[in-house]
Design brief:
This protein has 14 helices and eleven strands. The protein is of the alpha/beta class. It has one domain: TIM Barrel (Alpha-Beta Barrel), CATH 3.20.20. Strands 1-9-8-6-5-4-3-2 form an eight-stranded parallel sheet. Strands 7-11-10 form a three-stranded antiparallel sheet, with no helix packed on it. Strand 4, helix 6 and strand 5 form a beta-alpha-beta unit. Helix 2 runs parallel beside helix 3 and helix 4 packs parallel to helix 13. The longest helix has 17 residues. It is globular. The mean pLDDT is about 95. InterPro entries: Aldolase_TIM, NMO. Keywords: Detoxification, Flavoprotein, FMN, Monooxygenase, Oxidoreductase. One of its GO terms (molecular function) is monooxygenase activity.
Length: about 350
């Protein structure tokens, strides 16, 4: 087994390592450093407005001439229910009062922002785009393909992976339940739950059921994880939490320290911060929301309702009132540069493969 695969050939990269598009935590420096180190950096553009997306792509292109990706959120078709929003605003009032915050004005123009992002990606000559929260419509897929852009989808079950392949996606990420941050799920299981299948179980089952290349994601932090992903049939691995604690990440010191000080048992999957299930470090805000006697408003509404609270808490060093997305392998997190992390992962993998 060697570290060159279908993915390294397709993406034009040296190593089968992808840095996850962690919205809010990537920087142009992180993306470019990962790409310059022979892997695939990804701009986490999920929350960007068009101006910010254009700026980030321009900055990355100034720092590297190697391939990188942009990660976008597929727009949701969620309901705007005023009564639910009023109820949630009443619940969040004490938090806002603590930080002297006003009630936010909601922006529900997700679709327009997404379509503009697709145009920007094409105009700026980005070669690879990844999607989470579902599969973009056929018009978007055809538009990207017409410009020879490689498209990556996300799946948390075999059913979702098959749907990605059927929609003509080029590659699919198999996101195991260990992964930190938002779940990429867009289907429900037979008992109306979101799929939560572990990486080691999910990857080979997806590999056996699709013909497009598979990227393994969830809990992978080192060379052992890289080799394991390849042995299971993936053509590359995606690492998120591993890059969160690097020097180039946009994560605050509070956030980086929280990951470093956490145990493998400290994370939970919750929808209280954004309205979508995501894995993060358990804290007081999550526990307090257990007492909330109504449905949490859907994403992106809940995300906007709690956004200023989370930012203010993080700024004041309050880890109990902000989101701290993390996968289930925090004990393996390291404080180092992204370039050194990739070097270590590759060296570990090569040593294992030579044994």
């Amino acid at each position: 087994m060697k570290l060159s695969t279908r993915i390294t050939d397709l993406f034009g990269i040296k190593y089968p390592i992808i840095q996850a598009g962690m919205a809010g935590s990537t920087t142009p420096e992180l993306v470019a450093t990962v790409s310059n180190s022979g892997s695939l950096g990804t701009i986490g553009a999920g929350y960007f407005n068009p101006e910010k997306l254009e700026q980030e792509i321009t900055r990355v292109q100034a720092l590297t001439d190697l391939p990188f990706a942009v990660n976008l959120f597929v727009p949701s078709e969620k309901l705007y229910i005023p009564e639910k929003i009023e109820h949630m605003n009443a619940w969040l009032r004490p938090y806002r009062r603590a930080f002297n915050l006003e009630e936010p004005v909601l922006n529900i123009s997700e679709e327009q922002v997404f379509n503009k992002a697709i145009d920007i990606v094409i105009d700026k000559g980005v070669k690879i785009v990844s999607f989470t929260f579902g599969i973009p419509n056929q018009a978007v897929i055809k538009k990207l393909k017409a410009h020879n852009i490689i498209i990556i989808g996300t799946a948390t079950s075999v059913e979702e992976a098959i749907a990605n392949e059927s929609a003509n996606m080029d590659v699919v990420i198999a996101q195991g339940s260990e992964a930190g941050g938002h779940r990429g799920s867009f289907t429900r299981t037979s008992n109306n739950q979101m799929p939560l299948v572990g990486t080691m179980s999910l990857v080979p089952q997806i590999v056996d059921n699709v013909n497009i290349p598979v990227i393994a994601a969830g809990g992978i932090m080192d060379g052992r994880g890289l080799v394991a992903g390849l042995v299971l049939g993936a053509q590359a691995v995606q690492m998120g939490t591993g890059f969160l604690t690097t020097e180039e990440s946009a994560a605050t010191e509070l956030y980086k320290n929280a990951i470093k000080q956490s145990l493998e048992t400290d994370t939970v999957v919750t929808n209280v911060f954004s309205g979508k299930p995501a894995r993060g470090i358990d804290n007081e805000f999550i526990h307090n929301m257990e007492g909330y006697n109504d449905d949490i408003p859907d994403y992106p509404i809940q995300n906007q309702l709690t956004n200023a609270i989370r930012k203010a808490a993080a700024k004041e060093g309050n880890a109990q009132w902000t989101h701290l997305w993390s996968g289930q392998s925090p004990r393996l997190a390291q404080r180092l540069s992204a370039a050194l992390l990739i070097e270590k992962v590759v060296k570990e993998a090569e040593n294992i493969l030579q044994q």
